[in-house]
Amino acid sequence: MAERNGRGLPRRWVVSAVTMSVAGVATAAYGATRGVGHEGAAASPSRTPAQPVPTTPAVDWIGQARTRIETYVRQYDGHLAVAALDRRGSAAVTVGARRFETASIVKVDILAALLLRQRPPGRALSSANRELAEAMIRSSDNDAASALWQKIEGSRGLTAANRTLGLRETKPRSQWGRTTTTVADQIRLLGALTSPTGPLTAQDRRFVMGLMSTVVPEQRWGVTAGRAPGNRGTYVKNGWDTADADGGRWLVNSIGRVVEDRHDWLVAVLSDHHVSREAGVRVVEKAATYILRELRAAAAHDTPAQG
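The structure assignment produced for this chain is given below.
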């Protein structure tokens, strides 16, 4: 009879059970090691599936700036419109679709129309026309503007030129200062006057910008107030007048360009219903300063970090 242990089991059963137990541990250990180290091993059914890494949605900094600018303009109840575009980036905003009377900012449009009539394109103006153009832009001379208005055939000539320049919302009147426009169209005009792919030759673009950069000191207000320290150049043309239809209140407009190290801003601010010219100038300058400050900050957030 086989020998029994203290619990009455045969010795060979005990030995056999121990041997199977050791073998089972070894097999489990081998399987665990193989499951960890072997890339082709099937995933353990009890393992928690990997969760996707959460991502933060991209912030629309320009959109946020646009919302703040819209709120700012809304306080003027339709008597203010602003637009700006960075020729070196993607920052751009247009707030306000209303047409305003141009007053003297239309003089830039008249000059562009005069240059477009030159044959061949880019031909220098006659000395007489050049003198009129200089007086019209630099000191906003109205007699000079009226003389050149006749040379471009008035509203008909300006309408034809505006088609070439890409303007869509500017309506010439028989009196040049009563022409109506929008801030969007003024940005289109400034774009045509600065773009290498625009309808004007490089020589003509330099001529226009040269005059807008040398406006007499007492008229260098408006969008130039929005320039940052260390700016590389400012170009401006302003317009102001009283409006009979508005009880003699003032309309004050400013268009121009502000060139900086990282930006090349085209800016237009149109406004009316001011109690005085000085009050209108303050509104225009505050608006230009605000819109450029907002867009600069937004553009800085959008600029990728340099590695």
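Interim note for the steering committee: The two ends are 86 Å apart (CA to CA). Residues 1-43 have pLDDT under 50 and may be disordered.
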